[in-house]
Amino acid sequence: MCPAKTIDGQQRGFVIPIGGAEERVKDPIILQRFVELCGGENAYIVIIPTASQLEETGSNYEDVFHELGVQKAISLPINDREEANSDEYLAELDKATGIFITGGNQLRLSTILGGTPVAQSIRKRNADGVHVAGTSAGAAIMPEHMIAGGRTGALPNEEGVTFAPGMGLINKVIIDQHFSQRNRLGRLLSAISYNPFASGLGICENTAAFIDPTGVLEVVGHGSITVVDPSDLSHSSMADANRGEAITLIGLKLHVLGPGATYCINERIATPAS
């Protein structure tokens, strides 16, 4: 699934996957940057708390955004596919300058939102210039292919990852979150072993990739982003591996990027912070 098409002359909005556990009070650098992009005090933030099964998640984020100076922040409590057809919710998305997808269970996101008018609206609004951020599960669902699960550990293997369709806001990366905190290098490498078309982004907690309309990401926050660049991959044994067998990958590049560093997704060029 490719990102929704932009109208001639329209600049696509930022796509902002967050690795989870973003700071919301003491030094909310990621959320503050998101708010500024969306218009500061004039921002209209729509929150999608579907991934979470906690009733207070949406209202908690409303409070967070109000504390950051946003006058209008509204949560849409979408808990089933019927609610994802709501004309009232679609009208709120039409007014949004920013959309924020919370953490929780990414399979709740894909099974409840997948293919619905709400999901279609999020894609279209991003193509219209609206910025979309997502944390944890909300980050995982952003690409065309979503990591739905997999083993922890540093090494890839044949059973290392499971996929589900994502939202397709971006189609040249695969995203994993809580990356170093949950030891997920192996499952990101397993994901890349299937097809070297996409770069892998392993995003640490309290860290975000601010991906601009040209496909350049900047690392924002207090952790790092591990980039798995498969452009020079010369061999993957995934097609021939037996069940649970270790995978051979030859020619991978790996970058570890701290705050301020950038990575051009289209050209696969990493640059240190200036």
Q: What is the makeup of the main sheet? A: 9 strands, mixed
Q: Pairing-aware structural class of the strands and helices?
A: alpha/beta
Q: Kindly report how far apart the N and C termini lie.
A: 34 Å
What is the helix content? Answer: 10-25%
Number of helices: 7
Order of helices and strands: EHEHEHEHHEHEEEHEEEEEEEEE
Radius of gyration: 18 Å
**Proportion of residues in β-strands:** 25-35%
Quaternary organisation of the protein chains: single chain
Low-confidence stretches: none
Q: Spatial order of the strands in the main sheet? A: 3-2-4-5-1-10-11-16-17
Question: How many distinct beta strands?
Answer: 17
How confident is the prediction overall: mean pLDDT?
A: 97
Label the overall shape.
Answer: globular
Description:
With 274 residues, the chain is of the alpha/beta class. The chain has helices at 29-38, 57-67, 87-95, 106-113, 117-127, 137-140, 185-194, and strands spanning 15-18, 44-48, 72-75, 98-101, 131-135, 145-149, 162-165, 173-177, 199-203, 207-211, 216-221, 225-229, 235-236, 249-250, 253-257, 262-264, 269-271. The strands form four sheets. Strands 3-2-4-5-1-10-11-16-17 form a nine-stranded mixed beta sheet, sandwiched between helices. Strands 8-9-12-15 form a four-stranded mixed beta sheet. Strands 6-7 form a two-stranded antiparallel sheet. β16 (262-264) and β17 form a beta hairpin. α3 runs parallel beside α5 (117-127). The longest helix is centred in the N-terminal third of the chain and has 11 residues, at 57-67. The chain is globular. The two termini are 34 Å apart. The model has no long low-confidence stretch (mean pLDDT 97).
